[in-house]
Amino acid sequence: MTTNPSSRPPRPVAIVTPLYDPAVGGVERYVGHLARGLLARGIPVEIVTTDPGADQPRAEIRDGVPVRRFPTVLGDRLVYPAPRLARWLSRHASAYRLIHGHNLHTLLPAMGALAARRADVPFVLTGHWHGGGHTPARQLLHVPYRPVAAWVARQAAAIVANSPSEAAQLTADFGTLPVTVITEGVEPPITRTDPQDGVPLPTADGPTILSVGRLEHYKGAQRLPGALAHLPGHRLVIVGDGPDREAILGAADRHGVADRVLLRGRVSDEELGAWYRSADALVTLSRHESFGLTVLEAAAAGLPVAASDIGAHRDSADLLPVGRVTLVPPDGDAAVIAQGITTAIAEGRRDGKAAPVVPTWDQLVTQTVALYERVAQ
Question: Listing from the earlier edge strand, what are the strands of the sheet with 235-239?
């Protein structure tokens, strides 16, 4: 994006997103890398977000990025209704070069699209779109919300899809759209290899299976203890937190593998990198993703992967050497999952767990800047 030749500073890009750092999640990680990358290229950026917990500063600078937070109605974390954010954005939209809305499963992109339309500034959308809700309640909300999502998509001068599968889902749901696929990236592999320092590992003499992600039911981590029962001598390490934590612990007790399961909760990037480096395989059983980020993160550390056979994981597998990702039927039983993990570990030993070349966050930022240039012109 070109800089303003006059002495007046260039207008910033507004990134409208449900949550932001220190909140943890795939969208939050994406937006954080994008915002810091834009700033590093001399492009001013401002985060406009919510704080359902009302425990973060209303305005602050994080890593050089200005952040404005607004409360949601009754602390809602489902659709993120934030009237104050909508009013503020409507009044100040003309101060931005463009507005970039994230996560079409929430109301935030609609607020950004409406403000951009009124101020006659370009609107860009990154939907992180799965096509439906992950629980019966969320699926029910999608019925009245679908026309709103369709309107938001039609307001966008450009739509970013994280994968070819997401692009196909967007056009299937909303018709012909100006969609550009920009693949998510990963950080360079972290070389530290000692997650065991101070970590009480479960007892096992065999391979370590790693699972990474928020503990939501649709992510499938609650199915892993059952698979572990078919893998004697293996241990399972789960990184992440969420509402399914107790269900996972209960499943571990029922299957008699509690002594071989370790739930680490949220960890630092350094510890996560160490687990990626030291484990024998990553397993992800998610049923809905716009992009298989953990698949690429694991691969960047040389880790073989067993992943549910969904579009986003197939797209990630296409970016990697043949055999690096073993696809598992999404509805496969415990024995089928266990076999997929066994196959992934064997493939990893066969190719020496060499780290392949994978997309990076820097490449994502470069492609997004080029998209902004086209939209601005």
Answer: 261-265, 235-239, 208-212, 281-284, 305-308, 325-328
| CB neighbours of residue 81 within 10 Å | 16
- Tell me, what's the pLDDT at 192? 44
User: If you ran DSSP here, which 8-state letter would residue 236 be given?
Assistant: E
Q: Is residue 30 assigned to a domain?
A: yes
- H or E element at residue 16: strand 13-17
Backbone angles phi, psi at 133, to 5 degrees: -85, 165
The predicted model gives 360-367 an average pLDDT of 95
CB 311 within 8 A of CB 331: no
**Do 34 and 138 share a domain, yes or no?**
yes
Determine contact, residues 373/1, Cβ cutoff 8 Å. Answer: yes
Structural domain for 310, as ranges: 208-351
pLDDT: which is higher, 140 or 126 = 126
Q: Which spans in 123-189 are helix H?
A: 136-155, 164-174
Question: Read out DSSP for 53-104?
Answer: T--S-SEEEETTEEEEEEPPGGG--SS---HHHHHHHHHHGGGSSEEEEE-T
The predicted model gives 114-134 an average pLDDT of 89
28 and 161, same domain (yes or no)? yes
User: In percent, how much of the chain has pLDDT > 90?
Assistant: 65
What's the predicted TM-score (pTM) here?
0.81
Which three-class secondary structure state does DSSP give residue 220? Answer: coil
Cβ contacts of 319 within 8 Å, gap of 6 or more: 183, 296, 358, 359
Domains contained in the chain, number: 2
Provide mean pLDDT across the span 338-348.
Answer: 92
Task: Using the CB atoms, write b or e for 218-256: b if 16+ within 10 Å.
Answer: bbbbbbbbbbbbbbeebbbbbbbbbebbebbeebbeebe
What is the DSSP annotation of 249-313?
HHHHHHTT-GGGEEEEES--HHHHHHHHHH-SEEEE--S--SS-HHHHHHHHTT--EEEE--HHH
> Could you tell me how many residues make up the chain?
377
Give 147's contacts (C-beta < 8 A, 6+ positions apart): none
47 and 177 within one domain = yes
Q: Is it the case that residue 7 has pLDDT exceeding 70?
A: no
- Residue 358, classed as helix, strand or coil, is coil
Select, from the ranges 50-59, 141-150, 238-247, the one with the highest average predicted confidence (pLDDT): 238-247
Same domain for 117 and 228? no
